Amino acid sequence: MSSNLQMKILAKETVIYGVSSIVGKFLNWLLVPLYTYVLQQQSDYGIVTNLYAWTALLLVILTYGMETGFFRFANKAEENPKTVYSTSLIALFTTSLLFAVACVVWQLPIANALGYPTHSEFIALLGIVVAMDAFASIPFAYLRYKKRPLQFAALKLLFVFLNIILNLFFLVLCPKIQDWAIISSWYHPNYGVGYVFVANIMATGIQTLCLLPAILEGFRADYGLPNPDSRQLFSGKLLKQMLRYSLPLLVLGVCGIMNQTLDRILFPFFYDGADAQAQLGIYGACFKVAMVMMMFTQAFRYAYEPFVFAKHKDRESVAAYADAMKYYIIFSYMILLGMIFYLDLLKFIIAPAYWEGLKIVPVVLWTYIFQGVYFNLSFWYKLTDKTQWGAYFSIIGVVITFALQAIFVPRIGYMASAASSTVCYLVIMLLSYFVGHKHLEIPYDLRRIGIYTLLVLTLLAGYYTLAHLLPINEWIKMGIGTILLIIYCVIFYRLDGKALIKKK
Q1: How many CB atoms lie within 10 A of CB 227?
Q2: I want to staple 16 with a disulfide (CB 3.0 to 4.6 A). Which of 149, 342, 352, 416 is the partner?
Q3: From CA 456, how far away is CA 427, in angstroms rounded?
Q4: Is residue 504 pLDDT above 50, yes or no?
Q5: What is the pLDDT of residue 125?
Q6: 369: Cα separation from own chain's centroid
């Protein structure tokens, strides 16, 4: 298959997965204004920010690299994909169940350690949510492996819609009808932020139930009938091989997610002020404003990962990897410019009390770009089974992130949290490129990437010079931004866009 055709297929699947990733995350994004406008205090959103940062970290630990391990071993000729799937399911179910039980049993001491002694039930609720999400990662990976993007998207969107509806019910509708007998018997008006977690566990539970057909498929023969003699349902030998491959990815994943979440996990410990939770709430809300870039990166990842592992034996695919990197950077820059130029409009998704933190948005956008490039580069060590390098890079990233936050957060607050992540991903991105070039040579178009980078920096410099140094209003600023964005799009069309459209 030619590189051009592969790009077409990749683009098609990226669009489909984007229904669940971009549209889904966008709809969840709309919960941000709900939380910032409805929750009584900035510190309430600080609680949401802090606990969901812990949730993201724990989710990576509980999946322990098995999602990527599944793709790797399911595409090996010597392995039965069904055995790989059922073995992964059994392993994840066991560890997830043990974790959920531990969170329920020891919720009080955990809550005391995290600073929420009066709401230990938050720990139990989120522990069960994390366990269900960790287990569900394998059935979702199986849907991607079987090229069922529509089913994948439908189930992801189901969770999003349920979560939004339940949040609206608990936070908006119930306060208005709390006097109704059917509501007043269980609804507590002062519980506030707790209903965010209640809505989450209910939506996650329903989504997990809807995954049952895909889960049961792992325990059936290809023609749909139970046939225990056709293959092993669980292979201890295979699991050991998968763990040997995946555990370095666990270190990578843990360190990687720590690079993304340490700012929100450690901020209450490093920040000297008494309003740590309120400052964290402001930071968390403004951080969410930049999520559009993360949505694009996630959609690309869902399509790119199975694409790489399925095509890794095809030497022509090396050119496809290089093209994928170039176009990822091009479109990421387009999103970056659009969000910076229209930030005066985007700020209205959060309450005015949070606007003081908007200065972090450009910094966070660059973080997401570096993170996406690093993800694309990371396939050299996944394809060559040198996953230990990913662990090395991630450990370096954690050290950088932790050190910068420990030094600068007490001095300049959450701006240091944002900048530390940017520096972290810039460093490990460069390290991955230079080390990876020695192990798997991919002809990245550095010249063209450099041209686009210089173009973006020039446009941003022009925008900040004209829009921020001159006495003009917000509408004129956005007009200037629109002209600059059009310039970028025209140059892209002349350099690469026209050729991309004509590819067959």
Answers
A1: 11
A2: 149
A3: 20
A4: no
A5: 94
A6: 13
Tell me how far apart the alpha carbons of residues 194 and 45 are, in angstroms, rounded to a whole number: 11
Q: Six-digit token pair at 22?
A: 């971009």
Pick from 231, 300, 303: nearest CA to 85: 231
How far is the C-alpha of 280 from the C-alpha of 235, rounded, in Å?
A: 46
pLDDT band at 223 (very low <50, low <70, confident <90, very high): very low
Question: CB within 8 A of 206, min separation 6: which ones?
Answer: 158, 159, 162
Nearest to 417 by CA among 394, 401, 428, 439: 401
Distance CA 417, CA 264 (A): 8
The C-alpha angle 430, 264, 158, rounded to 5 degrees, equals 95
Which tens digit of pLDDT belongs to each residue from 80-89? 888 889 999 9
Token readout for 485 is: 């964005």
In whole angstroms, give the CA distance from residue 178 to residue 491: 57
DSSP type of residue 21: I
| Stated length of the chain | 504
Token duo for residue 41: 């205090």
In angstroms, the CA 20 to CA 1 distance is 28
Q: Which of 190, 193, 202, 198 is nearest to 116 (CA)?
A: 193
Q: 156 pLDDT exceeds 80?
A: yes
Nearest to 71 by CA among 379, 338, 374: 379
Query: What does each C-alpha distance from 13 to 2, 17, 304 come to in angstroms?
Result: 17, 6, 9
With contact defined as beta carbons under 8 Å apart, do 428 and 396 qualify?
A: yes
pLDDT of 386 higher than 80: no
Question: If you search the block for the tokens 């996953």, which residue do you land on?
Answer: 387
In angstroms, the CA 129 to CA 192 distance is 19
Determine the residue type at 336: L
Mapping DSSP onto H, E and C, the string for 164-204 reads HHHHHHHHHHHHHHCCCHHHHCCCCHHHCCHHHHHHHHHHH
Q: Residue 104 in contact with residue 124, Cβ under 8 Å?
A: yes
Among 314, 299, 310, residue whose Cα is nearest residue 77: 310
Q: What is the pLDDT of residues 12-56, one digit of tens each?
A: 666 666 666 667 777 777 888 888 888 878 888 888 888 999 999
Tell the residue number behind the tokens 């009584």, with chain if given. 40
